[in-house]
Amino acid sequence: MIVRAQIPELRLVLACAHAHLEPGDRAALQAALDAGVDWARVLHLASWHGMRPLLHRHLGAMEAGRVPRPVLVELWAEAETIAGRNRALHAELARICSTLEGGGIRSLPYKGPTLALAAYGDLALREFGDLDILVARNDVLAARDALCAAGYVEEYPLRPQVLEAFIASDAQYHLVLRSPVLGHLVELHWKTDPDFPVERLDDPAWWHATLRPGALRGLTDEELLLVLCIHGSKHGWSSLGWLVDVAELLALESRIDWERLCDRARAIGCSRRVGVGLWLAAELLGAPLAPAARALAERADVRRLAVALLPAILAAEPDSPGALQGLRLGLAMVERPEKRIGIVFRTVCLPSLVEWTRWPLPRPLFFMYPVLRLGRLAGKYSRRGIDSLFTGRRLHS
Question: Are residues 225 and 189 in the same domain?
Answer without folding.
Answer: no
